[in-house]
Amino acid sequence: MKTTIIYMSSHGTTEKIAKMIRAELPTKDIEVINLKTNKKPELHNTDQIILGASIHAGLIPKRMRNFMMDNSQILKSKKLGLYLCCMEEGEKAREQFENSFPEELREYAKSAKLLGGEFIFEKMNFIERMLVKKIAGTNESISKIKIDEIKKFAKTFI
């Protein structure tokens, strides 16, 4: 059974989590694809698809939104998992998740989770650093990756 993990990552957190999910899955036939570099991944030869994205300025990347819209039928024909990387907690995080993934995919997904996020100041540009300082009130790198949720995500997806 082939699994494909497709993600968009600006600073590397969503990629890091994609690799952590890969390590938790029992199957060895797993391809991890960055949608930034592979704009049209082959979906027909895979049995399972996991989509991962991160929030920047309240939205996931447009390329991921378009990918989901353009491929919704094939995504619903596969075993599907969805994960979102964000720094928000509670209701705000849930709201971001719901705004990021179309309802039809959220309802269809076997596993759907909020897996935390990171502020990596070394990888941010000046404007991103200023926004994070103003909105989040921090001027240093912070990691809130939820290891236990990643394990639950993988276990639920199996």
Notes on the protein architecture:
- The protein is an alpha/beta fold.
- The chain has a single domain (3-118, 147-157), classed as Flavodoxin domain (Rossmann fold).
- Helices cover 41% and strands 20% of the residues.
- It contains seven helices and seven strands, in the order βαββααβααββαβα.
- It has a five-stranded parallel sheet, sandwiched between helices. Strands 6-7 form a two-stranded antiparallel sheet.
- α1 packs across α7.
- It is globular, with a radius of gyration of 15 Å.
- The termini are close together.
Report the CATH superfamily: Flavodoxin domain
Record the strand order, biggest sheet.
2-1-3-4-5
Please report the total strand number as a whole number: 7
Q: Strand-and-helix sequence, N→C?
A: EHEEHHEHHEEHEH
Largest sheet: 5 strands, parallel
Under the CATH scheme, the architecture is 3-Layer(aba) Sandwich
Query: Rounded to an integer, what's the Rg over CA atoms?
Result: 15 Å
Oligomer: single chain
Number of domains: 1
Mean pLDDT: 91
The CATH class name reads Alpha Beta
CATH topology (level 3) name? Rossmann fold
Helical fraction = 40-55%
SS-derived structural category = alpha/beta
Estimate the global geometry from the Cα principal axes: globular
* Percent of residues in β-strands: 15-25%
Contiguous helical run count: 7
Terminus-to-terminus distance: 11 Å
